[in-house]
């Protein structure tokens, strides 16, 4: 059986309310979009090895080693925290790597839809967006390994409950 590996991560968050149910919409720092990205590969070990080699090459290069974050012994690639020159190298890598596909969904955070469709529950909104991201990508003849980035605000049981809903409602 063929295997396919799907890695999902987000930019932004599914939250509409802060502490004590304070509405965040329109407030400074509010993120009006939730973006989910998916990296797909058929050989996760080869991809991981290639990324580790890229990281090692960058950390061994005197130009990149002059960047404070790259100097650290525990440095690892992370788009949000990386210097723009490091990000440029990662983008070159992604463009050249043969066995990788990228997909994304951009969701506009609409308070009325959040209330009506998602019952004011950020996890329902999040998994609705995941459902859109996966739609048409899962094939029954391929064993799918799906990895969701750890969400800080959702407990494991909540993720499992929403995951069950997602799989049962996926086209």
Describe the structure concisely for a colleague.
By secondary structure, this protein is α+β, with helices and mostly antiparallel strands.
Bulk shape: flat
What profile does the largest beta sheet have? 4 strands, mixed
Distance between the termini: 22 Å
Radius of gyration: 19 Å
Number of strands: 4
Q: Based on the structure given, which CATH architecture of the largest domain is correct?
A: 2-Layer Sandwich
How many DSSP H or I helices? Answer: 7
Return the string of H and E elements: EEHHHHEHHEH
Number of domains: 2
Q: Which regions are unreliable across 5 or more consecutive residues at pLDDT < 50?
A: none
Q: What level of helicity do the residues show?
A: 40-55%
Structural class: alpha+beta
Largest sheet, order of strands side by side? 3-2-1-4
Overall CATH class of the largest domain: Alpha Beta
């Amino acid at each position: 059986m063929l295997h396919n590996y799907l890695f999902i991560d987000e930019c932004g968050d599914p939250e509409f309310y802060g502490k004590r149910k304070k509405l965040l919409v329109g407030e400074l720092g509010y993120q009006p979009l939730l973006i989910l990205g998916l990296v797909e590969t058929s050989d996760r070990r080869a991809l991981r090895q290639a990324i580790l080699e890229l990281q090692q090459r960058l950390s061994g290069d005197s130009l990149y080693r002059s960047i404070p974050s790259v100097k650290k012994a525990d440095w690892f690639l992370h788009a949000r925290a990386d210097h723009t020159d490091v990000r440029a190298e990662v983008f070159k890598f992604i463009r050249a790597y043969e066995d990788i596909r990228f997909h994304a969904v951009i969701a506009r955070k609409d308070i009325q839809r959040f209330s009506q469709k998602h019952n004011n529950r950020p996890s329902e909104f999040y998994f609705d967006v995941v459902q859109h991201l996966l739609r048409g990508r899962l094939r029954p003849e391929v064993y799918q390994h799906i990895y969701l980035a750890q969400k800080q605000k959702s407990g494991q049981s909540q993720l499992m409950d929403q995951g069950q809903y997602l799989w049962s409602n996926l086209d």
